[in-house]
């Protein structure tokens, strides 16, 4: 078997095993079933509710997981879920999430929803996908997931059943009793029937009570777009999901591995890549706390958790690496072989600091929801290039296309990264057909094969892919396009800077002006003036030098650690308008900036007692900002 060490190996592996492989499952149900047959009594998925290194944990063996997945699938079918019907999960990480994810795919289509979203956004996704069944949390002290889901369901008549998971069951018995007393009461104003997860599952058999899915079809809806605006729903097929799992089992993991994965399963990195690869290879998946890296005490206990489970792979994202690096390695982590990082750019400086602090290599990879996930990764057992997202994985073709001429770029030239792979569902990436227009470059046959990622990048002479920017996220200054990545990488190279988010702030003359929000490494106290001087010295294009830099205690981030730019845009709109009001003596202020599904970002303006409305309207006429009275 060829090892994945170089670009030539990637091609050789693909030649050795044409896609689809003959000896690999074709649906996730068959993948889970195969894991039970091959690794039955071995540890499959492990979850602990709290972060302590000796805290109570529950492990499902692969055989137990398979039985519960069959029960969940039977339950969903009994509630009317057919192959094209949707079961949504509004769940944080827990073993029930894994069971629901695979069970829903066996019966129909799973739609994992981020439980951190607001009720209105959850309702939007439930409506758009037409979900019939929702699996969510029962009320818990200190968590509002149940309440938000209930509020969302008020406006979603398509949901007929809600199945509740009680995380209190993971507590020791005395804490469970206390949690029972402290459980918040909830007003339920929706019509859906509410069921209890373990009771409903117990009534079902551990063999599939219906014909297992036999052909390729859509198996999941993952929402994305959190960094650029309102979530979009992308659909993935069994074949794409199995492809990701196959890559992992083929080039990375085996049943002796243990993956420490504090990443959410409502995102493709956790669900499709990590859980999929674990199930294909028999490696154990460990999930510390429902909120993963955001869970209380997870960073402080992290190295001890690695020791507890003898983890071999650490699955991570740049923001988590930055936090981990600030804690001493206070446990025996000799079991660890490698850290795998993805989902956002890993600053080169951070890469170096982490390798020095933890004595561990980081293998950076690149994927996106629209490609089912995996696109490229540095070879785990071959040379890793810092700053590069690695080599396209076997059966994935990366083409760099000049956005203007639509010609393929030569080696080293920057263009839009376009991807063809078994994970790309040509012509059908998003559930909303209109969003698929202009999303592909055709292959030689004219089929819409190469997905336009909206990322800019280049391939080097060894075939390594470098992401250099984002065409989907440009700052447009007076008709001139500025790539925020240029500003971000320049500022991130400053030793006191941990993370940067560059956006366009509204401007009456230029439309947008570049501005940057910065999070410092802990203990640093560099001034904005010093950062501005650094920006001027290191950003070559004058127009791209930010007009404004602000240091925030922490940048807003998504659940997988990407800087959440919509929140920065809201800050910038409020700041720019309030300044304009002050300058013109307008007695008004921005009370909130909110995202509206149809209108985009809307500024809500509060009137002061001395407001002259006509003057305010004159000021607002200079901007292209949508606004309303608060
Ligand atoms: P999502 O599907 O929401 O996870 O977003 C996918 C996007 O995340 C990609 O299109 C990239 O813009 C970005 N991304 C993923 N991995 C990396 C990486 N290693 N470096 C830089 N950007 C990344």
Automatic annotation (TrEMBL):
Q: Which UniProt keywords apply?
A: Ligase
Known EC number = 6.2.1.-
Q: What class of enzyme is it?
A: ligase
Q: Give the UniProt family note.
A: Belongs to the ATP-dependent AMP-binding enzyme family.
The Gene Ontology terms for molecular function here are: medium-chain fatty acid-CoA ligase activity
In terms of SUPFAM superfamilies, this protein maps to:
Acetyl-CoA synthetase-like
Give the superkingdom in one word.
Bacteria
In what residue span(s) does the AMP-dependent synthetase/ligase domain sit? Answer: 34-427
- Has the keyword Ligase been applied to this entry? yes
Q: What is this protein called?
A: Fatty-acyl-CoA synthase
* One of the protein's GO biological processes: fatty acid metabolic process
Q: Which NCBIfam families match?
A: PRK07529.1
Q: Which Gene3D superfamilies match?
A: 3.30.300.30, N-terminal domain of ligase-like (3.40.50.12780)
Q: Which PANTHER family match?
A: ACYL-COA SYNTHETASE (PTHR43201), MEDIUM-CHAIN ACYL-COA LIGASE ACSF2, MITOCHONDRIAL (PTHR43201:SF5)
Domain named AMP-binding enzyme C-terminal: which ranges?
Answer: 486-562
